[in-house]
Amino acid sequence: MPTTRTLEDQIWEALATVKDPELPLTVMDLGLIDEVQMTGGRVHVRMTPTYSACPAIDVMRQDIRTKLLNLPGVEEVQVELSFAEPWTMARMTERGRTRLLEHGLSVPSRRSAEPVTCPFCGSTNTALENPFGPTLCRAIYYCRDCRNPIERFKPPPE
């Protein structure tokens, strides 16, 4: 028996396919989408970026608009950025955390005071090499055991 998917279901499914251009994750895995409101053919999406100066924001906003405008019944899409509550690692899904580890990025645990673990060899014999990584949300560490550089998401501020 076929099921009827509502427009809201289709919107959430479409959002689950919008990728962050810098990471192997979707906006849903990162926990960037706060709210979706629909009024007729108008869709309003509220999104909290990982950092206010994230260079991927405009790309993700455009991808969201494009995907949602391709849905039947959607005529207009507004993607609002929200900074009311800062993004934290706690918003990321377990699937997102696993994908980052598989991609070779170290991810802080949900407990803040743990040492940095190397995603390549599992060692915690690591050192901060540079607090400024390839993006604002990452830092560079060095594993003293396997001698690999490590990109790691910065933990949330205390």
UniProtKB/TrEMBL annotation:
<dbReference type="InterPro" id="IPR056572">
    <property type="entry name" value="Zn_ribbon_PaaD"/>
</dbReference>
<dbReference type="InterPro" id="IPR002744">
    <property type="entry name" value="MIP18-like"/>
</dbReference>
<dbReference type="Pfam" id="PF23451">
    <property type="entry name" value="Zn_ribbon_PaaD"/>
</dbReference>
<dbReference type="InterPro" id="IPR052339">
    <property type="entry name" value="Fe-S_Maturation_MIP18"/>
</dbReference>
<dbReference type="InterPro" id="IPR034904">
    <property type="entry name" value="FSCA_dom_sf"/>
</dbReference>
<feature type="domain" description="PaaD zinc beta ribbon">
    <location>
        <begin position="109"/>
        <end position="154"/>
    </location>
</feature>
<dbReference type="InterPro" id="IPR011883">
    <property type="entry name" value="PaaD-like"/>
</dbReference>
<dbReference type="Pfam" id="PF01883">
    <property type="entry name" value="FeS_assembly_P"/>
</dbReference>
<feature type="domain" description="MIP18 family-like">
    <location>
        <begin position="8"/>
        <end position="79"/>
    </location>
</feature>
<protein>
    <submittedName>
        <fullName>Phenylacetate-CoA oxygenase subunit PaaJ</fullName>
    </submittedName>
</protein>
